[in-house]
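Retro notes (design track)

What went well: tokenization of the new backbones is finally stable.
What didn't: we kept losing track of which sequence belonged to which structure.
Fix going forward: every design gets posted as structure first, then sequence, in one message. First example under the new rule, 204 residues:
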């Protein structure tokens, strides 16, 4: 605050106008200072809020980096394990090379076997088709034979029944004739005796 001269008067102390102006100037300066302080306070509050948000974002970023660090450590550990396993498998590289060479050598035989298997499959398929066709033909022929046999059997049974009926009738006739044969034989014997008596001359 700038020094404002206050004049003194002969009676009553200081000049009232000077005191009033001094008070007004002091009030204005105080209001200006309060306004500046309020603006500074608002600026500091905004800065504090921004710093708070930034700190929160940094904390989130830190947590994400911690997660990423854990993932990287796990990946590093896995890579180390894989490297150790690969180191253990290095002696097998020569064997793998030999096996690859052997595979390349056997590849033509494998292709030939695959082709042979395809031909065998075709032959089996054709054989199945032929067998199915033969089975169907045989079944049809067998059905025709059964039908023919059934027809012949029915015809034979009809003929047998007719013949049996005729034979039964003839047997009945023979049975009747046989039952009458003793009587006819007796009559024939009597006639023979009479004829013999007539042929033999009477004795003197």
């Amino acid at each position: 605050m700038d020094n404002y001269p206050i004049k003194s008067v002969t009676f009553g102390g200081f000049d009232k106008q000077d005191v009033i102006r001094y008070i007004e100037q002091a009030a204005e300066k105080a209001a200006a200072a309060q306004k500046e302080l309020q603006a500074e306070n608002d600026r500091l509050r905004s800065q504090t809020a921004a710093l708070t948000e930034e700190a929160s974002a940094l904390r989130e970023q830190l947590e994400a980096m911690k997660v990423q660090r854990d993932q990287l450590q796990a990946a590093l550990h896995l890579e180390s394990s894989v490297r150790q396993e690969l180191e253990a498998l290095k002696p097998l590289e020569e064997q793998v090379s030999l096996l690859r060479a052997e595979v390349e050598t056997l590849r033509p035989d494998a292709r030939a076997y695959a082709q042979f298997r395809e031909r065998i499959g075709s032959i089996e398929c054709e054989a199945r088709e032929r067998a199915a066709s033969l089975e169907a033909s045989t079944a049809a022929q067998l059905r025709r034979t059964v039908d023919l046999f059934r027809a012949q059997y029915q015809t034979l049974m009809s003929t047998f029944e007719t013949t049996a009926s005729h034979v039964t009738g003839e047997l009945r006739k023979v049975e009747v004739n046989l039952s009458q044969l003793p009587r006819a034989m007796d009559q024939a014997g009597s006639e023979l005796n009479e004829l013999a008596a007539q042929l033999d001359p009477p004795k003197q």
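Added context from the reviewer: The first helix runs from residue 16 to 89.
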